[in-house]
Structures are given as structure tokens and as C-alpha cells.
Amino acid sequence: MTYEEVVSKVREALTGVDVSSVSEHTAIQVNVTGEGEGAFYIEVQDGKVNVEPYDYFDRDVLIYASAEDIIGVAEGKVDVVNAYLTGKIVAEGDLRKAEFLKNASKEKAAAPAKKAAAKKPATKKPAAKKTTAKKAPAKKTAKK
User: Are 66 and 32 in contact (CB under 8 A)?
Assistant: First the structure.
């Protein structure tokens, strides 16, 4: 996998992620190790996620990860906290600002699916009028 493919896959995976809970500018630089090696950044600003193939010198968080692991995190297939605790991902800086990555897959899954185009309702024939037999009123008996 090439560096460009890694950046493209992460960008695609993070498109549409709800970051409305991120109240301040966040910049995360990701240094990909091994296959697809290179640096790119994930930035959250004004409620949008941007993924660009550049270093980010004034970053809040720096992450070192393999292409497979960072794509897995972005797609929600790899638990970022578990990957960090097991050493698959190394991170430094204000990790609190990277929390949206932890919830990215949950937020995408919780987003309502796009509705299919509404089908044209079938035309119905008017219902046949039902006739009911009239009931005779019940006789009342007087109590003595």
C-alpha cells in the first residue's frame, strides 16, 4: 500500500464523522511506519474533519502507527484505546483531543442510514361497502 492510498483511506473513513462534540481546534499528526510510510494530519476545525498529506508542526497529538492500524482505527475496526495500551499505536501530546477517534466508528454506526427513494403507493380499488344486519333491540325485563 502506498502512502497516498493510506491518506486516501483514512480521509474516506473519517468523512462524515460527527465531531460536533469537539469544541476546540484539534490537530493530530500521524506518522505512518512501515509500508506506506509518511506523515499526514487529521484536523478538526469548525465541525469538519480534514485529512491532508502534510506534517503539522503546531499539533496537539503525534501518533506513530502502521498503515493497517491507523486505517483500522479510522474505519472503526481497531479500538484505538486497546491499540494504544498494547503498543500498536504510540501517541504523545494532549490525548484528550484525540478522543473523537475513539468514538468515530460508533458515531458513524449511529448515524441514520440514507433512506431509499420512496416508492409510489399502489393505487387501491375502493373497498366494497359492507352491509350489516340490524339487530333487534333486547327486551328489557322489569324487576319486581
Answer: yes
Q: Write the CA distances from 133 to 98, 126, 127, 140, integer angstroms.
A: 73, 22, 19, 21
Q: In sequence order, which residues have a C-beta less than 8 Å from that of residue 96 and are 6 or more positions away?
A: none
pLDDT digits (tens, 9 = 90+) for 51-88: 999 989 899 999 999 999 999 999 989 998 999 999 99
All three cell numbers of 68 = 493497517
For the entire predicted model, the pTM comes to 0.71
Check if the beta carbon of residue 76 is closer than 8 Å to that of residue 68.
Answer: no
CB atoms within 10 A of CB 95: 17
